[in-house]
Design brief:
Two copies of one chain form a homodimer. By secondary structure, chain A is of the alpha+beta class. In chain A, the strands form two sheets. Chain A has a seven-stranded mixed beta sheet. A six-stranded mixed beta sheet of chain A has the order 1-2-3-6-4-5, with helices on one face. The first copy, chain A, has two domains: about 130 residues, 60s Ribosomal Protein L30, Chain: A (2-Layer Sandwich); about 180 residues, Alpha-Beta Complex (Phosphoribosyl-aminoimidazole Synthetase, Chain A, domain 2). The two termini of chain A are about 30 Å apart. At the A-B interface, helix 1, strand 3, strand 4, helix 4 and strand 5 of A face helix 1, strand 3, strand 4, helix 4 and strand 5 of B.
Chain lengths: ~375, ~375
């Protein structure tokens, strides 16, 4: 929708055109139909891991190990890169490529899988998208670099030109990822999640790729748009460039944790629905957060300029924490140490408690309950 | 592009906005970068099957069996369903769902894989796409039914609302598929393909999902558009409805062949580039076709109305043959018998010969050479 630069009302996800109230019930209907197909695997001598239904990746027991697979969409972040290319002449598609792979890889690893193969889905609005040499080269190089960082093989993919479906000049980016859970006791679907577990949060690099529609609406009502300087940032950087900081790839951390002997009980990729994703597991637990990380300047800026309450901000954005690991209390310090050793900030942020499904962020006086996250069939 | 209903010049893929001359070299550059990432699998104790690079599915050796994965796009066929819904009030998205799954499954099985898991990628132009109950229900039901036909588990998927990237009212449909090749000697990457092998063609149901942009351009210049009756059809049917006959799912045939003891040396899914796909394998062979199947009425109609030469028609459409199996000569008759038993027409259509990469369709006096198919790095 067009936004009025003089409109100072708060922005929200409903006003940004993504209405989870319409999409979530549809997702639930699709999940129910999908669940009815799982028994087909029996005919092939395998079986699904039923508790992976509704989790971030689907898991199949193929005997010596589990197979995990997923397809994930980037969302609208490529539009920010398009705008920034128009403003600066520079292609940001290397960062966008990493964001796309992160959407898939960071979901796949939540079940305990080692990502092995990524497939590219690059659907352009027309053949001419691929005629811009700098842009297409950035996309290819960024994609390869992200695969190198995650130690996954880029298996191939699909690069259709979809005039009439994808808008002219735009590209719809997605990635599929296949991996294995091996040994099988790496499976982290939450069977061992329970009261007393520690919640370790891993740092985000900025907005990642969720909440971007709202950020685009905000840019539309700022007089300097994407070129607005971020006041809270230590180094001078514009809003658009800060948005395009690539998403952290968390699989090097989960692989290092495995090598260090830490087996997370559960993991949540903090994407759409922001911190509400901490309540992702099907069981009813209360997640109590004692300490929140520093908020990246770009998210601080968005919250201030879009006039978002803490409740809306933490319910929409990652607010500095891109990934959550739920580990045995005695593993919490080592989990943080492994992340630090890999160069990523991490914090023991809270604990899992018996109680109704609820997220309590103490220092902010915030509370969300299970009904705030309608993901399940 | 807008088409002029009075323009009677032949239609072609270039004029339909899909320019393979731009896309194919880009694909080749991406394939080169992708190939450089295959060695990451070694660090996980696995290895890629290098000869699967550039084939229809990517194959990894995970020890007891091979893992195959793929992501595939439907293309523009959903736009035909959109037009037909506007004209008839009926949703054709159940058929479209099957088409989408067929694009992935029919590619995956070419390497000898049993498809196990399909993931849905349904990227809509906005949340409102999902508000049409009949349409979304057809999509879900058709997707489930196609999974049932292929005996695959629908693992989950992604249903983003991508306003600004996907056009309002449209949907970008794709599917990822993961399977295994087991036992490992089912692998059909063409190592055993050679002179004397028989080419068995399996019947298509119509246009499937390739060549649809051209069909849409044709509809735009027909006075009755999608409601034009197909004169060559035995039963009265309109052009649009005939286009929306769902794609044949070939995995029940390849699974039945395995059970019957037939191991194809190679397989080709006849999609974009039409019969030129028969030259898909990297080796130089001459593929000589002695007999062509009957052409489905909808493809006969397109060829006649779009004024296509046989060369253009067979180089673009499946012309009645949706899938090719390259089998040992002594397995050819049984291959046909297995297909017939499964209810699908099939023909021993030709032979593989030593010679330069070339496709010769004798009865039509057609010849294509390897340079007519620029898919490889």
């Amino acid at each position: 929708m067009p936004t009025d630069p003089t409109d100072l009302s708060p922005l929200s996800y409903g006003s940004s055109g993504v209405d989870y109230n319409v999409i979530d019930p549809f997702k639930v209907a699709a999940q129910r139909a999908a669940a009815s197909t799982g028994s087909h695997l029996d005919g092939h001598g395998f079986s699904e891991v039923e508790s992976s239904r509704g989790e971030s990746a689907y898991v199949v027991d193929v005997g010596p190990f589990y197979l995990a697979s997923i397809v994930e969409c980037l969302g609208s972040k490529a539009m920010v890169a398009d705008s920034m290319q128009a403003l600066t002449g520079k292609s940001f598609f290397a960062a966008i490529a990493q964001d796309t792979i992160a959407m898939a890889v960071n979901d796949l690893i939540t079940v305990g899988a080692t990502p092995l193969v990524v497939q590219a889905y690059w659907a352009a609005g027309g053949s001419e998208w691929f005629a811009d040499a700098g842009r297409r080269q950035a996309l290819i190089e960024g994609w390869k670099r992200a695969c190198d960082l995650c130690k996954v093989s880029w298996g191939g993919g699909e690069t259709p030109a979809l005039a009439g479906i994808v808008e002219a000049g735009r590209i719809d980016l997605a990635a599929s990822c296949t991996g294995i859970v091996s040994p099988k006791d790496r499976l982290s679907l939450g069977a061992h999640l329970g009261p007393g577990d520690a919640i370790v949060l891993l740092a985000s690099s900025g907005i990642h790729a969720n909440g971007v529609s709202l950020a685009r609406d905000l840019a539309a009502r700022l007089p300097q748009g994407y070129l607005t300087p971020l006041t809270a940032s230590a180094v001078p950087i514009g809003f658009g460039e800060a948005l395009l900081e690539p998403t952290v790839l968390y699989s090097p951390i989960t692989e290092a944790l495995f090598k260090a002997g830490v087996r997370p009980h559960y993991a949540a990729n903090i994407t759409g629905h922001g911190w509400r994703k901490l309540m992702r597991h099907r069981s009813a637990f209360t997640y109590r957060i004692h300490a929140v990380p520093d908020v990246p300047p770009v998210l601080k800026f968005i919250q201030a300029e879009a006039l978002l309450s803490d409740r809306d901000a933490y319910g929409t954005f990652n607010m500095g924490a891109g990934f959550a690991l739920f580990v045995a209390a005695e593993d919490a310090a080592q989990t943080v140490a492994v992340a630090h050793k890999a160069g990523l900030d991490a914090w023991i942020a809270g604990t899992v408690e018996a109680g109704p499904k609820r997220l309590v962020i103490e220092s902010l006086g915030l509370e969300y309950d299970g009904s705030d996250l309608g993901l399940r069939a």
